[in-house]
């Protein structure tokens, strides 16, 4: 607990001292007010609890994908793993939900004239240059760490960060505070050192 | 089966079990709405997410806190009248502190989270594909170590399913109302200092 507090105090100090070399708010903002989007997601959680008896979550989708891919290449080994014995990959509610999340993002972007069709985010290019390889390599390792952390903690920024916190789950508030502490610390290291 | 909320002593007849097809159709509609809202909120843009972690753009925190306030009020009210089940995950200090910190490191490197990376792909940010590849590999890596983690890290500081009102020995309804006021206050402070 004391270490956590120290970390939380350390971050703002670092923030004021560090020169990250880029201003994120200089790029195009969201289409809708964050309060409208946030309230919509809150309302959506009422509906998923009521109609589907489910809490919104994203990260298990990738574990299901991992199970499918594992079964494709090494079925015996994959089926022997503790996690996949308890969570065999299925075309379940969460899987369909996340597939349609991709489609929902596409519809919103397309109809709003925000479809990007780009490999490199503009802010990344302005700060780190035009190497797509650098971006996707770092991003890939980010994905690996994130999925491992989410499985260990039992959820991600959706499952813990929204669904768990709104249920006032202690596990979720602890997890999401650690997520942001780790995220802010690493983001400043990345943008000041690289 | 719906668990009875605090206002309802007798369990009411549960909503009739929908056939699997209807359930999955519901998942599709809810998923579409989730992706749509995240995209409109700007939460799938690299600079918005990375801007949040660099403490420059507070859009993500505003979306999350608003969703928490609205969701919390509705879900707890529905639960009070025994219309929904809660889906609480057990508190495990070791796993959640280490897992949360690892997640945060990864989040800063990719600058999309597991939900928004799917939306980013839909938005045509193709770098999201490599993030998704990483998420699949990371999930398999966890599965590979899951038997060992279960008896080590995930045993450290096991507290069971606990909620904040229980932790503070408060009435749940009162806590929900006070906490909603607190979070709205936080949102006002955020809006004052960080208009975006």
- Which pair has the most extensive contact? A-B, 139 and 130 residues
Give the oligomeric state of the chains in this entry, treating copies of one chain as homo and distinct chains as hetero: heterodimer
Uncertain runs of chain A are none
The average pLDDT of chain B is 93
Helix content of chain B: 55-70%
Give the number of DSSP strands of chain B.
2
Query: Shape of chain B, please?
Result: globular
The total count of helices of chain B amounts to 8
Largest sheet, strands/sense/barrel of chain B: 2 strands, antiparallel
Rg of chain B (C-alpha, Å): 20 Å
Cα(first) to Cα(last) distance of chain B is 43 Å
Biggest β-sheet strands, sense, barrel of chain A: none
Rg for CA atoms of chain A? 19 Å
Brief synopsis:
The complex is a heterodimer of chains A (194) and B (196). Chain A is mostly helical.
Give a structural overview.
The complex is a heterodimer of chains A (194) and B (196). Chain A is an all-alpha fold. Helices cover 72% and strands 0% of the residues of chain A. Chain A has ten helices and no strands. In chain A, helix 1 runs parallel beside helix 10 and helix 9 (159-166) packs antiparallel against helix 10. Chain A is globular. The two termini of chain A are 30 Å apart. The model of chain A has no long low-confidence stretch (mean pLDDT 93). Chain B is mainly α and 196 residues long. Chain B folds into two domains: 37-88 and 169-196; 90-162, no CATH class. Chain B is built from eight helices and two strands. Chain B has helices at 20-40, 46-53, 59-80, 93-110, 114-122, 128-151, 164-167, 172-193, and strands at 91-92, 158-160. In chain B, strands 1-2 form a two-stranded antiparallel sheet. Chain B starts with 19 loop residues before the first helix and ends with a helix. Chains A and B meet through helix 1, helix 2, helix 3, helix 5 and helix 6 of A and helix 1, helix 2, helix 3, strand 1 and helix 4 of B.
């Amino acid at each position: 607990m004391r270490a956590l507090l120290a970390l939380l105090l350390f971050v703002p100090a670092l923030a004021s001292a560090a020169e990250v070399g880029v201003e994120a708010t200089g790029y195009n903002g969201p289409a809708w007010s964050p309060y409208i989007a946030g309230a919509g997601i809150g309302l959506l959680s009422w509906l998923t609890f009521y109609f589907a008896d489910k809490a919104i979550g994203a990260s298990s989708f990738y574990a299901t994908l991992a199970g499918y891919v594992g079964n494709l290449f090494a079925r015996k080994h994959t089926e022997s793993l503790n996690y996949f014995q308890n969570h065999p990959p299925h075309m379940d509610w969460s899987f369909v939900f996340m597939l349609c999340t991709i489609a929902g993002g596409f519809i919103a972007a397309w109809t709003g004239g925000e479809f990007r069709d780009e490999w490199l985010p503009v802010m990344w290019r302005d700060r780190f240059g035009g190497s797509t390889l650098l971006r996707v390599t770092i991003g890939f390792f980010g994905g690996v760490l994130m999925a491992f952390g989410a499985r260990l903690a039992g959820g991600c920024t959706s499952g813990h960060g929204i669904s768990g916190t709104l249920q006032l789950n202690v596990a979720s508030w602890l997890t999401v505070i650690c997520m942001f502490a780790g995220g802010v610390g690493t983001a400043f290291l990345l943008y000041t050192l690289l | 089966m719906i668990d009875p909320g605090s206002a309802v002593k007798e369990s009411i007849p549960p909503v009739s079990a929908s056939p699997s097809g209807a359930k999955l159709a519901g998942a599709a509609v809810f998923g579409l709405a989730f992706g749509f809202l995240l995209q409109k909120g700007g939460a799938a843009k690299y600079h918005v997410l990375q801007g949040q972690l660099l403490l420059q753009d507070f859009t993500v925190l505003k979306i999350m806190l608003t969703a928490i306030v609205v969701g919390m009020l509705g879900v707890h009210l529905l639960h009070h009248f025994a219309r929904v089940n809660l889906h609480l995950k057990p508190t495990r200090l070791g796993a959640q502190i280490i897992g949360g910190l690892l997640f945060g490191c990864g989040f800063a490197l990719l600058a999309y989270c597991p939900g928004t990376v799917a939306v980013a792909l839909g938005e045509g940010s193709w770098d999201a594909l490599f993030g998704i590849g990483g998420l699949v590999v990371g999930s398999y890596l966890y599965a590979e170590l899951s038997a060992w983690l279960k008896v080590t890290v995930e045993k450290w500081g096991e507290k069971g399913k606990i909620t904040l009102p229980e932790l503070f020995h408060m009435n749940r309804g009162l806590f929900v109302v006070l906490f909603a006021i607190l979070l709205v206050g936080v949102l006002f402070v955020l809006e004052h200092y960080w208009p975006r």
